[in-house]
Amino acid sequence: MNERKFLKNEARKNLKIHYFRNIIVTFITAIILSSGITYTTKNFTDFSLTTNIISKITNDSNLKIPENKIFDYDFNKNIQEKIQKNYKYGVLSYLINETLNNGNIVTTLFNGINKLILGNKISAGVIIIISSLILWGINWLFFKVIEVGKNRFFLEKRRYYETKMERILFPYKMKKTFHIAFILFNKFIYQILWSFTIVGGFIKYYEYRMIPYILAENPNIKRKDAFLLSKKLTVGEKLELFKMDLSLIGWNILSIFSFNITSIFYSDAYKDFIFAEYYMKLRNKYSFDLLNDEKLNINVPVYKEYPYIKNKKSLKIDYNKDYDFITYILFFFTFACFGWFWEVFLEFIKLGRFINRGTMYGPWLPVYGWGGVLILLLLKKYRDKPWLLFILAFTLCGIVEYGTSMYLEYVKHLKYWDYSGYFLNINGRICLEGLILFGLGGFGFTYIFAPLLDTVYKKIPKYIKIAMCTILVSCYLVDLSYTHNHPNTGMGITRNFSVKFQLTK
Question: Residue ranges per domain, the chain?
Fold first, then answer.
């Protein structure tokens, strides 16, 4: 009990040092690892409710439609409610739910391509097989290996305060991707086989528990040695490991009731530090020739930065730099185009077809562009206070989105989005999930993308940048002028729409 308490206290202390960096690493790896979701054979051909409704109507032999007549099919209230229910919980939840319901994101993409390009000519079974094989390879070569990189980060973070987030790429930089993937795949197979014995599955789960940490310390270790060392490290420790897991169940329950907020902002990183401490506790009990990385030694002082990479060049990002007027114009179009691609991609995932999102016809969504530029302009003095900047970006984007929604509804008499039914929404115009995404986006614009893009833009001759801005602004103004009287509307764009199609013999 005292030992568990000690490990947890050490984990809390380590978590507080560069807190934001720690939770980002955990969040990124969690997203990557969640991409390797178990496959399912659930019927996902019913992927688009809208498409299926139309298909059933057009293929129904009992349906009598006069020749050369336009059939207007208006979605009734009941069907609209069914459609909205699919997207009730927001963008991230939709993607997660579709991944769970349809097997994985790869099957979802394949299904969308099949609908968009091939007209549903490939059977569901073929799509499942192809996408499953692809995802199987990706899962073990990239998704699973990143777990070892995450472990390396947290092991080093115990000793080095300035451990860089890029250390999650440790297995790839060591060029041991295939080797590590092979060992982890073996661990997976053995665990499945032992699970048939019930008790054996439980025992082996904890016996193999240290393999990812062993690989994080020594990625060159042989497969047999990795399993043997994990077995030796966990002798007499399996019950204690189980008790540690049991003591953390409260965090899992809290995560469920907090919609995973506590996991993202605390408990996931906290657990990673706990088991990094646990591994080092077990590792320091023995003297193994294969586990002797001095860089991870617990009995040495904590350095400010890695002494073994001190002289290596690293990418420096100056997020406090000033930007000129031309750069802000380029930022606007970069962010606006990114927003357009993001929303088009989401619609492709949802409906399996291309839909030009937004009020305009060009590949841009101004709300993203203005949001990004306003964050850079108005929140500059808060850049040294990341948490405050996130809150302010969260708020600013909410104001921009809410104001844009009101303008479109009351001036244009159109409703391009509706968050009704989303968690913590305000009049269906904004919701908590959307604002969190905008806040994170603003955070990324400020500290990463804007400085990097500025570095790229500075390499472009000034006269070329002026020409680019002139062309972009001219096209934007033409588009804006045209859409003032002829806004982009239709299925999948505005809230209220009708389906019109021509039926012939």
Answer: 2-38+141-296, 325-503
DSSP H helical ranges for 317-356: 325-351
Task: Show Cβ contacts of residue 180 under 8 Å, excluding neighbours closer than 6 positions.
Answer: 145, 148, 171, 215, 219
Provide, for the chain, the percentages of residues in helix, strand and coil under a 3-state DSSP scheme, each rounded to the nearest 5.
65, 5, 30
What DSSP character marks residue 39?
P
**Cβ atoms 347, 357 nearer than 8 A:** yes
The structure tokens listed for 146 are: 């990143």
Closest to 336 measured CA to CA, from 489, 475, 490? 475
Mind listing the pLDDT tens digit for each residue in 114-157?
A: 665 555 655 655 655 665 666 666 667 777 888 999 999 999 99
Q: What is the pTM of this model?
A: 0.56
Residues 6+ apart with CB under 8 A from 432: 422, 423, 424, 425
Other CB atoms within a 10 A radius of the CB of residue 373 amount to 20
**Residue 120 to residue 116: CA distance in whole angstroms:** 8
Cβ atoms of residues 204 and 186 within 8 Å? no
How sure is the predictor about 48, in pLDDT bands with cuts at 50, 70 and 90? very low
pLDDT above 60 for 61: no
Q: What DSSP designation does 431 have?
A: E
Q: Could you count the other beta carbons within 10 Å of the beta carbon of residue 67?
A: 7
With b for 16 or more beta-carbon neighbours within 10 A and e for fewer, the 407-423 pattern comes to ebbeeeebebbbbeebe
Which residue type occupies 413? H
Strand partners, 71: 501
278-295 per-position pLDDT tens digit: 999 998 887 788 887 877
**259-298 as b/e: b if 16+ CB within 10 A:** eeebbbebbbbbbbbbbbbbbbbbbeeeebeebeeeebee
- Contacts of residue 208, Cβ cutoff 8 Å, sequence gap at least 6: 187, 190, 191, 227, 230
- Give the residue among 300, 260, 182 at the shortest CA–CA distance from 436: 260
